[in-house]
Specification:
The complex is a heterodimer of chains A (190) and B (350).
Chain A lengths: L1 H25 L23 E3 L15 H5 L5 E7 L6 E9 L8 H5 L5 E3 L14 E3 H29 L3 H10 L11
Antiparallel strand pairs in A: 1-4, 2-3, 3-5
Chain B lengths: L3 H8 L2 H34 L15 H11 L10 H18 L17 H22 L3 H32 L4 H7 L18 H15 L11 H4 L9 H26 L17 H26 L7 H30 L1
Chain lengths: 190, 350
Protein backbone atom coordinates (compact mmCIF):
# COMPACT_ATOMS: atom_id res chain seq x y z
CA UNK A 1 0.00 0.00 0.00
CA UNK A 2 2.70 2.43 1.04
CA UNK A 3 4.86 1.47 -1.93
CA UNK A 4 2.09 1.85 -4.45
CA UNK A 5 1.12 5.23 -3.02
CA UNK A 6 4.73 6.30 -3.33
CA UNK A 7 4.75 5.01 -6.89
CA UNK A 8 1.67 7.06 -7.72
CA UNK A 9 3.21 10.15 -6.17
CA UNK A 10 6.51 9.86 -8.04
CA UNK A 11 4.70 8.99 -11.25
CA UNK A 12 2.44 12.02 -10.94
CA UNK A 13 5.43 14.20 -10.16
CA UNK A 14 7.20 13.02 -13.31
CA UNK A 15 4.08 13.79 -15.37
CA UNK A 16 3.96 17.32 -13.96
CA UNK A 17 7.67 17.79 -14.67
CA UNK A 18 7.18 16.68 -18.27
CA UNK A 19 4.32 19.09 -18.75
CA UNK A 20 6.32 21.94 -17.27
CA UNK A 21 9.16 21.27 -19.72
CA UNK A 22 6.91 21.16 -22.78
CA UNK A 23 5.16 24.36 -21.71
CA UNK A 24 8.58 25.98 -21.41
CA UNK A 25 9.31 24.98 -25.00
CA UNK A 26 5.92 26.32 -26.11
CA UNK A 27 6.94 29.94 -25.59
CA UNK A 28 10.42 29.69 -27.08
CA UNK A 29 10.95 30.81 -30.68
CA UNK A 30 10.70 28.17 -33.37
CA UNK A 31 13.91 26.66 -34.64
CA UNK A 32 12.90 25.45 -38.08
CA UNK A 33 13.81 27.15 -41.35
CA UNK A 34 10.80 27.85 -43.58
CA UNK A 35 12.49 26.38 -46.62
CA UNK A 36 10.97 27.85 -49.75
CA UNK A 37 10.82 31.28 -48.11
CA UNK A 38 14.16 31.13 -46.39
CA UNK A 39 17.10 28.78 -46.72
CA UNK A 40 20.20 28.01 -44.76
CA UNK A 41 23.52 29.55 -45.71
CA UNK A 42 25.84 26.70 -46.61
CA UNK A 43 29.10 26.45 -44.64
CA UNK A 44 32.31 27.57 -46.30
CA UNK A 45 33.46 24.00 -46.90
CA UNK A 46 30.21 22.76 -48.39
CA UNK A 47 31.04 20.48 -51.33
CA UNK A 48 28.43 21.05 -54.01
CA UNK A 49 28.99 20.60 -57.73
CA UNK A 50 32.08 22.25 -59.19
CA UNK A 51 32.32 25.69 -60.79
CA UNK A 52 35.14 27.47 -62.55
CA UNK A 53 37.13 30.05 -60.60
CA UNK A 54 37.38 33.52 -62.07
CA UNK A 55 40.77 35.14 -62.35
CA UNK A 56 40.37 38.46 -60.53
CA UNK A 57 42.83 40.22 -62.86
CA UNK A 58 41.36 39.35 -66.23
CA UNK A 59 37.84 38.55 -65.14
CA UNK A 60 37.99 35.39 -67.22
CA UNK A 61 38.27 31.76 -66.14
CA UNK A 62 41.51 30.70 -64.52
CA UNK A 63 41.30 27.32 -66.24
CA UNK A 64 43.62 26.72 -69.18
CA UNK A 65 42.16 23.41 -70.28
CA UNK A 66 44.93 21.05 -69.11
CA UNK A 67 42.25 18.33 -68.78
CA UNK A 68 43.68 16.93 -65.52
CA UNK A 69 40.23 17.08 -63.99
CA UNK A 70 38.75 15.29 -66.97
CA UNK A 71 41.23 12.47 -66.47
CA UNK A 72 40.79 12.38 -62.70
CA UNK A 73 37.03 12.06 -62.91
CA UNK A 74 36.00 8.46 -62.07
CA UNK A 75 32.49 8.90 -63.46
CA UNK A 76 33.66 10.45 -66.71
CA UNK A 77 31.36 13.39 -66.39
CA UNK A 78 33.68 16.32 -67.26
CA UNK A 79 34.42 17.38 -70.83
CA UNK A 80 36.93 20.20 -71.28
CA UNK A 81 37.79 21.91 -74.56
CA UNK A 82 40.40 24.64 -74.88
CA UNK A 83 41.91 26.80 -77.58
CA UNK A 84 44.92 29.01 -77.85
CA UNK A 85 43.83 32.56 -78.39
CA UNK A 86 45.80 35.03 -80.53
CA UNK A 87 48.84 36.32 -78.68
CA UNK A 88 48.18 34.35 -75.50
CA UNK A 89 50.86 32.25 -73.82
CA UNK A 90 48.54 29.59 -72.46
CA UNK A 91 45.48 27.89 -73.81
CA UNK A 92 42.19 29.08 -72.39
CA UNK A 93 39.06 27.09 -71.79
CA UNK A 94 36.26 27.36 -74.35
CA UNK A 95 33.94 24.69 -73.11
CA UNK A 96 33.65 23.00 -69.72
CA UNK A 97 30.71 20.63 -69.60
CA UNK A 98 29.77 18.95 -66.32
CA UNK A 99 27.28 16.11 -66.70
CA UNK A 100 25.77 16.32 -63.21
CA UNK A 101 23.54 13.30 -63.82
CA UNK A 102 26.67 11.14 -63.54
CA UNK A 103 28.65 13.17 -61.01
CA UNK A 104 29.06 11.53 -57.61
CA UNK A 105 30.49 14.67 -55.97
CA UNK A 106 33.73 12.83 -55.08
CA UNK A 107 35.84 15.94 -55.54
CA UNK A 108 38.71 14.20 -57.37
CA UNK A 109 38.63 16.95 -60.02
CA UNK A 110 39.22 19.69 -57.46
CA UNK A 111 42.05 17.68 -55.93
CA UNK A 112 43.61 17.07 -59.36
CA UNK A 113 43.50 20.73 -60.39
CA UNK A 114 46.93 22.25 -59.88
CA UNK A 115 45.98 25.86 -60.38
CA UNK A 116 42.94 26.07 -58.18
CA UNK A 117 40.84 26.79 -61.24
CA UNK A 118 37.80 24.91 -60.04
CA UNK A 119 36.06 25.08 -56.68
CA UNK A 120 32.97 23.68 -54.99
CA UNK A 121 29.77 25.62 -55.43
CA UNK A 122 27.49 26.37 -52.48
CA UNK A 123 24.46 25.80 -54.64
CA UNK A 124 22.10 23.06 -53.49
CA UNK A 125 18.70 24.02 -54.88
CA UNK A 126 19.22 21.82 -57.91
CA UNK A 127 15.90 20.02 -58.22
CA UNK A 128 14.52 19.92 -61.75
CA UNK A 129 12.13 17.85 -63.84
CA UNK A 130 14.30 18.32 -66.89
CA UNK A 131 17.35 16.12 -67.44
CA UNK A 132 19.01 18.71 -69.68
CA UNK A 133 19.24 21.08 -66.71
CA UNK A 134 21.95 18.88 -65.25
CA UNK A 135 24.27 19.02 -68.22
CA UNK A 136 25.86 22.31 -67.37
CA UNK A 137 28.40 24.25 -69.39
CA UNK A 138 30.33 25.85 -66.58
CA UNK A 139 32.35 28.05 -68.94
CA UNK A 140 29.23 29.46 -70.52
CA UNK A 141 27.81 30.03 -67.08
CA UNK A 142 30.90 31.97 -65.99
CA UNK A 143 30.81 34.07 -69.16
CA UNK A 144 27.11 34.78 -68.73
CA UNK A 145 27.71 35.87 -65.18
CA UNK A 146 30.43 38.22 -66.33
CA UNK A 147 28.28 39.70 -69.07
CA UNK A 148 25.36 40.03 -66.69
CA UNK A 149 27.52 41.82 -64.15
CA UNK A 150 28.84 44.16 -66.83
CA UNK A 151 25.36 44.89 -68.11
CA UNK A 152 24.11 45.54 -64.58
CA UNK A 153 27.02 47.87 -63.89
CA UNK A 154 26.41 49.72 -67.14
CA UNK A 155 22.72 50.18 -66.44
CA UNK A 156 23.50 51.32 -62.91
CA UNK A 157 25.90 53.89 -64.25
CA UNK A 158 23.41 55.32 -66.68
CA UNK A 159 20.77 55.29 -63.97
CA UNK A 160 23.18 57.13 -61.73
CA UNK A 161 23.60 59.85 -64.31
CA UNK A 162 19.90 60.26 -64.91
CA UNK A 163 19.33 60.42 -61.18
CA UNK A 164 22.05 63.03 -60.82
CA UNK A 165 20.32 65.31 -63.30
CA UNK A 166 17.11 65.09 -61.27
CA UNK A 167 19.11 65.61 -58.11
CA UNK A 168 17.63 63.45 -55.35
CA UNK A 169 19.40 63.33 -51.97
CA UNK A 170 22.70 61.46 -51.95
CA UNK A 171 21.65 58.99 -49.28
CA UNK A 172 18.76 57.37 -51.11
CA UNK A 173 20.91 56.60 -54.10
CA UNK A 174 23.50 54.91 -51.92
CA UNK A 175 20.75 52.87 -50.30
CA UNK A 176 19.44 51.81 -53.69
CA UNK A 177 22.84 50.63 -54.75
CA UNK A 178 23.27 48.67 -51.59
CA UNK A 179 19.97 46.97 -51.97
CA UNK A 180 20.55 45.93 -55.57
CA UNK A 181 22.30 42.61 -54.86
CA UNK A 182 19.47 41.57 -52.55
CA UNK A 183 16.89 41.93 -55.28
CA UNK A 184 18.34 38.93 -57.05
CA UNK A 185 16.19 35.84 -56.67
CA UNK A 186 17.48 33.38 -54.04
CA UNK A 187 19.75 30.70 -55.41
CA UNK A 188 21.38 32.71 -58.16
CA UNK A 189 23.92 34.20 -55.76
CA UNK A 190 26.95 31.98 -55.38
CA UNK B 1 -31.95 45.49 -19.65
CA UNK B 2 -34.11 42.51 -20.34
CA UNK B 3 -32.61 39.09 -20.20
CA UNK B 4 -31.42 37.76 -23.52
CA UNK B 5 -33.26 34.53 -23.15
CA UNK B 6 -36.43 36.20 -21.88
CA UNK B 7 -36.33 38.49 -24.86
CA UNK B 8 -35.87 35.52 -27.13
CA UNK B 9 -38.72 33.61 -25.59
CA UNK B 10 -40.93 36.70 -25.62
CA UNK B 11 -40.26 37.45 -29.25
CA UNK B 12 -40.26 33.95 -30.61
CA UNK B 13 -42.39 30.95 -29.74
CA UNK B 14 -40.86 27.76 -28.43
CA UNK B 15 -40.33 25.97 -31.78
CA UNK B 16 -38.38 28.93 -33.16
CA UNK B 17 -36.28 29.14 -30.00
CA UNK B 18 -35.49 25.46 -30.40
CA UNK B 19 -34.48 25.88 -34.03
CA UNK B 20 -32.30 28.79 -32.99
CA UNK B 21 -30.54 26.68 -30.37
CA UNK B 22 -30.16 23.70 -32.68
CA UNK B 23 -28.60 25.86 -35.38
CA UNK B 24 -26.47 27.57 -32.75
CA UNK B 25 -25.18 24.32 -31.28
CA UNK B 26 -24.57 22.75 -34.67
CA UNK B 27 -22.60 25.73 -35.90
CA UNK B 28 -20.74 26.01 -32.60
CA UNK B 29 -19.73 22.36 -32.76
CA UNK B 30 -18.89 22.57 -36.46
CA UNK B 31 -16.75 25.67 -36.09
CA UNK B 32 -15.03 24.24 -33.03
CA UNK B 33 -14.39 20.84 -34.57
CA UNK B 34 -12.80 22.55 -37.56
CA UNK B 35 -10.79 25.08 -35.64
CA UNK B 36 -9.72 22.75 -32.84
CA UNK B 37 -7.85 20.85 -35.54
CA UNK B 38 -6.08 24.11 -36.30
CA UNK B 39 -5.44 24.63 -32.57
CA UNK B 40 -4.11 21.10 -32.30
CA UNK B 41 -1.74 21.53 -35.24
CA UNK B 42 -0.61 24.94 -34.13
CA UNK B 43 -0.21 23.73 -30.55
CA UNK B 44 1.72 20.65 -31.61
CA UNK B 45 3.97 22.86 -33.69
CA UNK B 46 4.65 25.23 -30.83
CA UNK B 47 5.42 22.38 -28.44
CA UNK B 48 7.90 21.08 -30.99
CA UNK B 49 9.17 24.59 -31.72
CA UNK B 50 7.91 24.83 -35.29
CA UNK B 51 5.59 27.51 -36.69
CA UNK B 52 2.84 25.06 -37.74
CA UNK B 53 0.44 25.80 -40.59
CA UNK B 54 1.28 29.19 -42.09
CA UNK B 55 0.52 28.99 -45.78
CA UNK B 56 -3.28 29.02 -46.10
CA UNK B 57 -4.56 32.33 -44.87
CA UNK B 58 -3.03 34.44 -42.10
CA UNK B 59 -1.24 32.10 -39.63
CA UNK B 60 -2.85 29.20 -41.49
CA UNK B 61 -6.30 30.20 -40.29
CA UNK B 62 -7.97 29.00 -43.50
CA UNK B 63 -6.31 25.60 -43.22
CA UNK B 64 -9.40 23.83 -41.76
CA UNK B 65 -11.48 25.09 -44.69
CA UNK B 66 -8.89 23.85 -47.16
CA UNK B 67 -8.79 20.49 -45.35
CA UNK B 68 -12.56 20.21 -45.42
CA UNK B 69 -12.66 21.04 -49.14
CA UNK B 70 -10.05 18.38 -49.78
CA UNK B 71 -11.86 15.74 -47.72
CA UNK B 72 -15.19 16.51 -49.37
CA UNK B 73 -13.73 16.20 -52.85
CA UNK B 74 -12.44 12.69 -52.12
CA UNK B 75 -14.27 9.59 -53.20
CA UNK B 76 -16.21 7.76 -50.52
CA UNK B 77 -14.99 4.21 -50.78
CA UNK B 78 -16.94 1.38 -49.20
CA UNK B 79 -14.71 -1.71 -49.16
CA UNK B 80 -16.00 -4.89 -50.73
CA UNK B 81 -17.85 -7.25 -48.44
CA UNK B 82 -18.49 -4.85 -45.57
CA UNK B 83 -21.78 -4.23 -43.87
CA UNK B 84 -22.68 -1.14 -45.87
CA UNK B 85 -25.24 0.37 -43.55
CA UNK B 86 -23.21 0.01 -40.38
CA UNK B 87 -20.10 1.23 -42.16
CA UNK B 88 -21.84 4.42 -43.24
CA UNK B 89 -23.76 4.96 -40.01
CA UNK B 90 -20.77 4.63 -37.66
CA UNK B 91 -19.29 8.14 -38.22
CA UNK B 92 -22.69 9.78 -37.77
CA UNK B 93 -23.30 7.70 -34.67
CA UNK B 94 -20.07 9.02 -33.21
CA UNK B 95 -20.89 12.63 -34.03
CA UNK B 96 -24.49 12.74 -32.84
CA UNK B 97 -24.03 12.10 -29.07
CA UNK B 98 -21.75 15.12 -28.77
CA UNK B 99 -24.29 17.27 -30.59
CA UNK B 100 -27.19 16.02 -28.51
CA UNK B 101 -25.38 16.27 -25.20
CA UNK B 102 -24.42 19.89 -25.81
CA UNK B 103 -28.13 20.71 -25.64
CA UNK B 104 -28.04 20.44 -21.85
CA UNK B 105 -24.71 22.20 -21.28
CA UNK B 106 -25.37 25.62 -19.73
CA UNK B 107 -23.18 28.16 -21.53
CA UNK B 108 -24.70 30.85 -19.37
CA UNK B 109 -27.42 30.99 -16.75
CA UNK B 110 -30.06 31.32 -19.49
CA UNK B 111 -28.02 29.92 -22.33
CA UNK B 112 -28.93 26.26 -22.35
CA UNK B 113 -31.01 24.75 -25.12
CA UNK B 114 -32.74 22.47 -22.65
CA UNK B 115 -32.66 22.97 -18.91
CA UNK B 116 -33.73 19.48 -17.87
CA UNK B 117 -33.27 18.02 -14.43
CA UNK B 118 -31.47 14.87 -15.58
CA UNK B 119 -28.96 16.64 -17.81
CA UNK B 120 -25.94 14.87 -16.37
CA UNK B 121 -27.61 11.48 -16.73
CA UNK B 122 -28.50 12.28 -20.33
CA UNK B 123 -24.91 13.14 -21.20
CA UNK B 124 -23.62 9.87 -19.82
CA UNK B 125 -26.40 7.90 -21.46
CA UNK B 126 -25.42 9.33 -24.84
CA UNK B 127 -21.73 9.13 -23.99
CA UNK B 128 -21.80 5.35 -24.20
CA UNK B 129 -23.05 5.50 -27.79
CA UNK B 130 -19.67 6.94 -28.71
CA UNK B 131 -17.92 3.67 -27.87
CA UNK B 132 -20.42 1.70 -29.86
CA UNK B 133 -19.82 3.94 -32.86
CA UNK B 134 -16.09 3.24 -32.95
CA UNK B 135 -16.76 -0.43 -32.31
CA UNK B 136 -19.26 -0.61 -35.16
CA UNK B 137 -16.96 1.32 -37.46
CA UNK B 138 -14.09 -1.01 -36.68
CA UNK B 139 -16.13 -4.16 -36.86
CA UNK B 140 -17.95 -3.32 -40.08
CA UNK B 141 -14.72 -2.39 -41.85
CA UNK B 142 -13.68 -6.04 -42.23
CA UNK B 143 -10.10 -5.08 -41.62
CA UNK B 144 -7.80 -6.70 -39.07
CA UNK B 145 -6.46 -3.42 -37.75
CA UNK B 146 -9.95 -2.02 -37.42
CA UNK B 147 -11.16 -5.09 -35.53
CA UNK B 148 -8.22 -5.02 -33.12
CA UNK B 149 -8.91 -1.35 -32.61
CA UNK B 150 -12.61 -2.03 -31.96
CA UNK B 151 -11.72 -4.64 -29.35
CA UNK B 152 -9.34 -2.25 -27.66
CA UNK B 153 -11.87 0.57 -27.63
CA UNK B 154 -14.43 -1.61 -25.90
CA UNK B 155 -12.12 -2.81 -23.14
CA UNK B 156 -10.66 0.66 -22.70
CA UNK B 157 -14.02 2.34 -22.44
CA UNK B 158 -15.43 -0.27 -20.11
CA UNK B 159 -12.41 0.24 -17.89
CA UNK B 160 -12.67 4.03 -17.88
CA UNK B 161 -16.41 4.42 -17.73
CA UNK B 162 -16.40 2.93 -14.22
CA UNK B 163 -14.15 5.48 -12.50
CA UNK B 164 -15.77 8.24 -14.54
CA UNK B 165 -19.23 7.28 -13.32
CA UNK B 166 -18.00 6.79 -9.75
CA UNK B 167 -16.61 10.31 -9.83
CA UNK B 168 -19.83 11.64 -11.28
CA UNK B 169 -21.83 9.84 -8.57
CA UNK B 170 -19.61 11.57 -6.01
CA UNK B 171 -20.38 14.89 -7.65
CA UNK B 172 -24.10 14.16 -7.74
CA UNK B 173 -24.04 13.33 -4.03
CA UNK B 174 -22.19 16.56 -3.28
CA UNK B 175 -24.45 18.71 -5.42
CA UNK B 176 -27.66 16.85 -4.76
CA UNK B 177 -28.90 17.45 -8.31
CA UNK B 178 -28.36 16.24 -11.86
CA UNK B 179 -29.44 19.54 -13.37
CA UNK B 180 -26.27 21.09 -14.78
CA UNK B 181 -27.58 24.61 -14.44
CA UNK B 182 -28.27 24.07 -10.74
CA UNK B 183 -24.85 22.49 -10.31
CA UNK B 184 -23.28 25.65 -11.71
CA UNK B 185 -25.56 27.88 -9.61
CA UNK B 186 -24.42 26.01 -6.49
CA UNK B 187 -20.87 27.14 -7.24
CA UNK B 188 -21.75 30.84 -7.14
CA UNK B 189 -19.19 33.14 -5.61
CA UNK B 190 -15.43 33.47 -5.88
CA UNK B 191 -13.34 30.63 -7.23
CA UNK B 192 -12.95 28.83 -3.90
CA UNK B 193 -16.65 28.03 -4.14
CA UNK B 194 -15.99 25.89 -7.24
CA UNK B 195 -16.32 22.16 -6.62
CA UNK B 196 -12.67 21.76 -7.58
CA UNK B 197 -11.75 23.58 -4.34
CA UNK B 198 -14.62 22.55 -2.06
CA UNK B 199 -12.51 20.47 0.29
CA UNK B 200 -15.22 20.82 2.95
CA UNK B 201 -17.58 18.72 0.85
CA UNK B 202 -15.06 16.31 -0.60
CA UNK B 203 -11.61 16.19 0.94
CA UNK B 204 -10.14 14.80 -2.28
CA UNK B 205 -11.89 17.23 -4.64
CA UNK B 206 -8.81 18.04 -6.78
CA UNK B 207 -8.06 14.34 -7.12
CA UNK B 208 -11.66 13.73 -8.11
CA UNK B 209 -11.21 16.33 -10.82
CA UNK B 210 -7.98 14.69 -12.00
CA UNK B 211 -9.69 11.31 -12.22
CA UNK B 212 -12.55 12.85 -14.17
CA UNK B 213 -10.11 14.54 -16.51
CA UNK B 214 -8.05 11.39 -17.06
CA UNK B 215 -11.17 9.37 -17.78
CA UNK B 216 -12.34 12.08 -20.15
CA UNK B 217 -9.08 11.75 -22.07
CA UNK B 218 -9.48 7.98 -22.21
CA UNK B 219 -13.14 8.12 -23.19
CA UNK B 220 -12.45 10.49 -26.06
CA UNK B 221 -9.50 8.32 -27.15
CA UNK B 222 -7.00 11.07 -26.76
CA UNK B 223 -3.26 10.63 -26.35
CA UNK B 224 -1.73 9.20 -24.22
CA UNK B 225 -4.73 6.84 -24.27
CA UNK B 226 -5.31 6.77 -28.03
CA UNK B 227 -5.09 3.01 -28.27
CA UNK B 228 -7.94 2.95 -30.78
CA UNK B 229 -5.98 4.69 -33.49
CA UNK B 230 -2.41 3.90 -32.49
CA UNK B 231 -0.90 4.83 -35.85
CA UNK B 232 2.37 3.02 -35.32
CA UNK B 233 0.65 -0.31 -34.64
CA UNK B 234 -2.81 -0.14 -36.16
CA UNK B 235 -2.47 2.19 -39.18
CA UNK B 236 -5.49 4.32 -38.21
CA UNK B 237 -7.33 1.77 -36.09
CA UNK B 238 -11.06 1.77 -36.60
CA UNK B 239 -10.78 4.58 -39.16
CA UNK B 240 -8.43 2.68 -41.48
CA UNK B 241 -10.98 1.92 -44.19
CA UNK B 242 -12.71 5.30 -44.11
CA UNK B 243 -12.02 7.81 -46.83
CA UNK B 244 -13.10 11.35 -47.55
CA UNK B 245 -15.76 12.84 -45.33
CA UNK B 246 -16.38 9.48 -43.58
CA UNK B 247 -13.00 9.93 -42.00
CA UNK B 248 -13.63 13.66 -41.73
CA UNK B 249 -16.72 13.12 -39.61
CA UNK B 250 -14.83 10.75 -37.31
CA UNK B 251 -12.17 13.40 -37.01
CA UNK B 252 -14.69 16.12 -36.24
CA UNK B 253 -16.45 13.84 -33.77
CA UNK B 254 -13.21 13.35 -31.87
CA UNK B 255 -12.92 17.10 -31.36
CA UNK B 256 -16.63 17.51 -30.61
CA UNK B 257 -16.29 14.90 -27.89
CA UNK B 258 -13.30 16.72 -26.44
CA UNK B 259 -15.34 19.91 -26.53
CA UNK B 260 -18.20 18.18 -24.71
CA UNK B 261 -15.88 16.59 -22.14
CA UNK B 262 -14.18 19.89 -21.38
CA UNK B 263 -17.51 21.73 -21.22
CA UNK B 264 -18.77 19.13 -18.77
CA UNK B 265 -15.62 19.35 -16.64
CA UNK B 266 -16.01 23.13 -16.62
CA UNK B 267 -19.62 22.93 -15.48
CA UNK B 268 -18.97 20.23 -12.86
CA UNK B 269 -15.71 21.40 -11.32
CA UNK B 270 -14.75 24.88 -12.51
CA UNK B 271 -17.93 26.77 -11.80
CA UNK B 272 -19.26 26.88 -15.36
CA UNK B 273 -20.26 30.42 -16.25
CA UNK B 274 -19.45 31.79 -12.79
CA UNK B 275 -16.75 34.45 -12.68
CA UNK B 276 -13.74 33.49 -10.55
CA UNK B 277 -14.03 36.80 -8.67
CA UNK B 278 -17.63 36.57 -7.59
CA UNK B 279 -20.35 38.96 -8.78
CA UNK B 280 -18.29 41.88 -9.96
CA UNK B 281 -20.64 43.22 -12.59
CA UNK B 282 -24.05 42.83 -11.04
CA UNK B 283 -26.43 40.02 -11.78
CA UNK B 284 -26.30 37.41 -14.48
CA UNK B 285 -29.73 38.43 -15.74
CA UNK B 286 -28.66 41.32 -17.94
CA UNK B 287 -27.40 40.85 -21.47
CA UNK B 288 -23.93 41.94 -20.33
CA UNK B 289 -24.12 39.34 -17.59
CA UNK B 290 -25.05 36.60 -20.05
CA UNK B 291 -22.19 37.54 -22.33
CA UNK B 292 -19.80 37.74 -19.38
CA UNK B 293 -20.96 34.31 -18.22
CA UNK B 294 -20.41 32.94 -21.70
CA UNK B 295 -16.97 34.53 -21.70
CA UNK B 296 -15.94 32.89 -18.43
CA UNK B 297 -17.37 29.56 -19.52
CA UNK B 298 -15.43 29.64 -22.79
CA UNK B 299 -12.21 30.76 -21.11
CA UNK B 300 -12.32 27.80 -18.72
CA UNK B 301 -13.39 25.37 -21.42
CA UNK B 302 -10.69 26.43 -23.85
CA UNK B 303 -8.09 26.28 -21.12
CA UNK B 304 -9.05 22.65 -20.54
CA UNK B 305 -8.99 21.97 -24.28
CA UNK B 306 -5.56 23.53 -24.50
CA UNK B 307 -4.38 21.27 -21.71
CA UNK B 308 -5.71 18.28 -23.67
CA UNK B 309 -3.48 19.32 -26.57
CA UNK B 310 -0.67 20.02 -24.16
CA UNK B 311 -0.92 16.51 -22.69
CA UNK B 312 -1.07 14.90 -26.11
CA UNK B 313 2.19 16.47 -27.21
CA UNK B 314 3.94 15.82 -23.91
CA UNK B 315 3.38 12.16 -23.16
CA UNK B 316 4.02 9.11 -25.33
CA UNK B 317 1.22 6.60 -25.83
CA UNK B 318 0.80 4.17 -22.94
CA UNK B 319 0.95 0.45 -23.50
CA UNK B 320 -2.33 -1.34 -23.37
CA UNK B 321 -1.74 -3.17 -20.09
CA UNK B 322 -0.50 0.09 -18.58
CA UNK B 323 -3.74 1.69 -19.63
CA UNK B 324 -5.87 -1.01 -18.05
CA UNK B 325 -3.66 -1.16 -14.95
CA UNK B 326 -4.08 2.56 -14.44
CA UNK B 327 -7.83 2.22 -14.51
CA UNK B 328 -8.37 -0.99 -12.54
CA UNK B 329 -5.54 -0.64 -10.03
CA UNK B 330 -5.45 3.09 -9.40
CA UNK B 331 -8.40 5.08 -10.72
CA UNK B 332 -11.19 2.72 -9.66
CA UNK B 333 -9.93 2.18 -6.07
CA UNK B 334 -9.21 5.86 -5.62
CA UNK B 335 -12.55 6.96 -7.05
CA UNK B 336 -14.33 4.41 -4.83
CA UNK B 337 -12.44 5.84 -1.89
CA UNK B 338 -13.45 9.40 -2.75
CA UNK B 339 -17.04 8.24 -3.10
CA UNK B 340 -17.02 6.70 0.38
CA UNK B 341 -15.09 9.60 1.87
CA UNK B 342 -17.36 12.29 0.50
CA UNK B 343 -20.50 10.38 1.48
CA UNK B 344 -19.13 10.04 5.01
CA UNK B 345 -18.27 13.75 5.06
CA UNK B 346 -21.70 14.68 3.83
CA UNK B 347 -23.31 12.52 6.53
CA UNK B 348 -21.11 13.93 9.28
CA UNK B 349 -20.85 17.62 8.44
CA UNK B 350 -24.02 18.54 6.67
Amino acid sequence: MKNSLKEIATGFNSLVTGMRITLGQFFKPSVTVQYPHESLKMPEKFRGHIVLVRDPETGKAKCFACKLCERACPSDCITVEGAKLEGAKKKSVTQYVLDFTKCSLCGSCVEACRDGAIRYSHEYNLASTNKEDYIMDLFQRLENERLEAERLQGSLKSEDQSLKSEGPPQETRAAEQRSTPNTQPPGTAQ
Amino acid sequence: MASLSNAISALWPEPLRLVLFVVGIMSFVGANAAYLVWVERKGAARFQRRPGPTEVGWAGLLQPIADAAKLMSKQLIVPAGVDRTLFRVAPLLMMSPALMSLAVIPFGEHLAARNINVGLLMIFAFGSVNVMAIMLGGWSSRNKYAIISAARVVSQNVAYEIPMLLVVITMIMVTGTMNLNEIVQNQAGPFWKWYLFRLDLNLLAPITFLIFYTCMLAETNRAPFDMAEAESELVAGAYTEYSGMGFGVFFMAEYSNILLGCALATALFLGGWQSPFGHLLGNWQSTIGVLLGLFWFLVKMYFLIFSVVWIRWTFPRTQFYGLLNLSWKILIPVSLFTLILSSAMLKLFR
